[in-house]
Each structure stands twice: as C-alpha cells, then as structure tokens.
Specification:
- Pfam families: DUF4333.
- This is DUF4333 domain-containing protein.
- Keywords: Signal.
- By secondary structure, the protein is mostly beta strands.
- It has two domains: 82 residues, no CATH class; 72 residues.
- Helix content is 11%, strand content 36%.
- The chain contains two helices and 13 strands; from the N terminus they run E-E-H-E-E-E-E-E-E-H-E-E-E-E-E.
- Strands 1-7-6-5-3 form a five-stranded antiparallel beta sheet, covered by helices on one side.
Length: 211
C-alpha cells in the first residue's frame, strides 16, 4: 500500500493575485481535488470570501514548468480563470504558484450615429444646392443704359457708371450715374422687371440733372 505524506503548505501573503501552494506526494502529481482545495483556501481573502466552486480538469504533474488551468466562481457569481504553474520540485514536495488574473473590463461600445444621406445637387445649381441667380455684369448694364438713353437726350452722354453687377431677381434695383461731356450728370435707376431663364429684363429710369 502506497503511503502519502502529509501535505506541507506554505503560508504566503497574496500579492496581485499571486500565491503559492505546495504538496508532498510520492507519485510526483498533485490530485485535482487537492489543487482545488489549495485554490479555495489561498484565494478566499483576495476574492472577498470563499468561492462558490473551484474546478480543475486534471491532476497537476510534478514537473517544473508544468501548468494547469482551473476555473473558479466567486461568491458573487463572477467566473475567473486560475492558472497553476509548478515552480520547483524538492524530492517529493511539489511547489506551485496560484494566479488568478482579474477579468478584463470590456469598454462599452458607443452606438454609431446613422449617416445622413447626401442630397443630390440639382443640375444648374451652385454648391449650396440653391438655384443659380443670373447676373448681368456691370459693363453690360452700363453699355445697355448708354445705348438706350443716348437717343432721348439733348446733350451728348459720355458714359454711364454703375457700382457693380446687377442680380437677376425681379425687383432688384441699382443706382447708376449718367455723365455728359460738359461735366454734368444725371442719376439713373436700373430695376429688374422680369427674368426668363438666363435672360434678365430691366427698366432704365433717368432722374433729374445734377452738377
């Protein structure tokens, strides 16, 4: 009949989930039940109470570097892995570390915002999607005003000067100035009367004489 020596346990402080156990056996293995008992006793303080259960799949081989992975359920129901590693074998005494790393916390997944569909650009529009407003350039307005006003005037007009381009929107007005060769001038008001496609129609009204 094989004799079993009484287990010689090492009392050690728990540091970062690492503790040690040792068992003296003649057959150079530690029974799974013995390893489970060691785990429950060594990790109880670290885990805040005696584990609900500890389970090891096999006996621990008495060879330096041999490993065994067991599972443990804490008092609050958390499942944890326990890693056993043989650190030394002194005759019939097998020393091993018991390590139970804390379970990793999974960061919550941030829900992805739904993608707003891009509105198609309407043909003939600008980058903003708004309809393009036709524009009559300053030079075109000045030339047309001079052409239409010249036959109606007694003096010889020299030029028409406008402050800028004319936007092709009904009701838009612009104040220009008609200049004569003798140095006099008359205010001239340009008013958009209608817009058909890209054609801008405008009225030219001549004001009183100025100096």
């Amino acid at each position: 009949m094989r004799k079993l020596l009484a287990p010689a346990l090492l009392g050690t402080a728990l540091v970062a989930g690492l503790t040690t156990g040792c068992t003296a056996l003649l057959d150079k293995t530690v029974a799974a039940s013995e390893v489970e008992a060691q785990i429950a006793g060594k990790l109880a303080g670290q885990l805040g109470g005696k584990p609900r259960s500890v389970s090891c799949p096999a006996d621990l081989r008495g060879e330096v570097g041999a490993t065994l992975q067991c599972s443990l359920v804490t008092a609050d129901g958390t499942e944890r892995v326990v890693n056993i590693t043989v650190t030394s074998v002194d005759g019939d005494q097998i020393n091993y570390d018991i390590k139970s790393p804390a379970p990793q916390q999974t960061a919550p997944t941030t829900p992805t915002e739904p993608t707003t569909p891009t509105q198609p650009t309407t043909p003939g529009t600008g980058d903003t999607g708004a309809p393009t407003v036709p524009v009559v350039t300053q030079a075109q307005v000045e030339a047309e005003a001079l052409r239409q006003l010249a036959p109606q005037l007694d003096g010889v007009p020299r030029s028409v000067v406008c402050p800028g381009d004319l936007r092709g929107e009904v009701g838009v007005t612009m104040e220009c100035t008609l200049h004569f060769e003798d140095g006099t001038w008359r205010p001239t008001t340009i008013t958009v009367t209608s817009v058909v496609g890209t054609t801008v129609n405008f009225n030219i009204r001549l004001g009183g004489a100025g100096e």
